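Run log, item B.
One chain of 388 residues. Sequence copied directly from the ordering sheet:
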Amino acid sequence: MIDPDKHLFEYDGFPVHLEPQVFDLLLLLVDQKGRLVTKDDLVQTVWQGLNVSDATISARINAARKAVGDTGRVQAIIKTVHGRGFQLNVEVKAVAASAQTPDLSRSDTQNIKFTRSSRGARIAFSKSGNGPPLVRVAHWLSHLELDWQSPVWRPLIETLDCKNTLYRYDQRGTGLSSRDLEGAEIDAFADDLKAVADANKLDCFPIFAASQAVPVAIRFAQRFPQRVSGLVLYGGYVKGRALREAAQGDIDEETVLGLIRAGWGKADSPFVNAFSTLFMPDATPAQLASFVKMQTETISPENAARLRQIIDRFDVSELLASIRTPTLVIHAISDAMQPVEQGRILASEIQGARYVSLESRNHVPLPQEETWTTMMHEVQFFLDSLQP
């Protein structure tokens, strides 16, 4: 489904982030309803008559094919007419605006509330979407208001709350929650998750956790097995970098702490380039800018370093064998922040866990990646399997 007014594209019911040129290309093919679209047509409409190379056009065609689940070999949806152009190979149906069901779960504003966790920590949380509950565990860099508009996190939020009621929160020390890290350790972060679940009267629910939120989710599932119906674990780890033997390409703790202390939140510092290469080497300039803004408004440099030291010492290796919750483990093969071996350990030690590897080098999932659609389909398929 493509909606030009909302600049929205959905594939199989899921919103898919598209670069503007790819969106315009798809829209042109749809408007032509199977009629031939020449390269000249594409250049005039998508590039406003600018001189572009065949390689550029091919790259956008390939991106459009990936967005609709097509390939250059199969060409079931977007067909190449050699020497002439391209055409849509499926039937196009127009839906009148009045006949469309309004999406009441989408809003440009959100309702943020607060609850109390252990040691009196104030935890900010929000709710969006409509459907079965899903709790996204907070991680190191989160801010409920900034995430809502972020080109990095908003696509993930929209995808997760497309078919679920999504509960998000800022963990202690970050975002809109209490900035005090006194007594912060893995059980305290698990307490934050429990506080949010209790505040929303969630008795049993699935969890989406990424990076250091993964050991927190595992600790919560071990403490409260009756409350967790499923675990989606992305880019996580069993032992923090301060405790594990360094794997090939693993980044040591002092390197990460040095980068933080050298230029936290400084847009023009070498720190940003080095740090973004670790977390999301394929980020766009807009995504990188939002990442810098997140640093300055989410946590102080001192607490950023301190929090990294805390989470780099998480160890749930002794808990994995006790987890009986249905689990999906997803890991990028070339993740520099948390090596893929950590994901494989998670999947092998949690009984019955399903493992999905992604051909990616980004620790933070980016919507423009080829693997984005695959990842989100795997997540929703898993969540759907949990329903009675």
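Observations after the first pass:
- The chain has a mean pLDDT of 88.
- The chain has 13 helices and 14 strands.
Flagged for discussion on Thursday.
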